[in-house]
Amino acid sequence: MINGLEDMIGVQPLETRVHFELNKQISCSIQVANGTDDYFAFSVSRCSLRPYNIYPSTGIVRPRSNFSIIIALQPLKKAPVEEQCKDEFTVQSTRVEECLEATDITGDIFHEGPGRVVDQVDFTVVLVVPPLSGDW
């Protein structure tokens, strides 16, 4: 039986900074850590309109293990206007049975209900945009 959120997976770092480069893919990674004896399904979603890819966006974290997720901003032809752009992401997770495969994960698994707790952790990717040349 699930008692609550006290033993859920962790996400690190909660904020990461990357330097923006025009016409180049920029990527960073986050770690999802499971310090429990349970299996967890996770799903990562973005709140930003910028074109990010998430590899993998869903998966299973085995007991007592870590899992790396790559967040990649696709090449942009134009620099963002702001000097620092904060893009928000969310990791949802819930305990699952050992026999569940990553291909079995659907959005329904992340709905709370009797005996099912869904944890949500937000993290931020900060794009650091260099000043335009000639700006002091």
From TrEMBL:
It comes from the Eukaryota. GO terms for cellular component: endoplasmic reticulum membrane; plasma membrane. Its main location: membrane. Pfam families: Motile_Sperm (PF00635). Coiled coil: none annotated. GO terms for biological process: endoplasmic reticulum membrane organization; endoplasmic reticulum-plasma membrane tethering. InterPro entries: Ig-like_fold (IPR013783), MSP_dom (IPR000535), PapD-like_sf (IPR008962), VAP (IPR016763). It is a single-pass type IV membrane protein. It is found in: Membrane. Residues 8-128 form the MSP domain. Keywords: Membrane, Transmembrane, Transmembrane helix. Belongs to the VAMP-associated protein (VAP) (TC 9.B.17) family. This is MSP domain-containing protein.
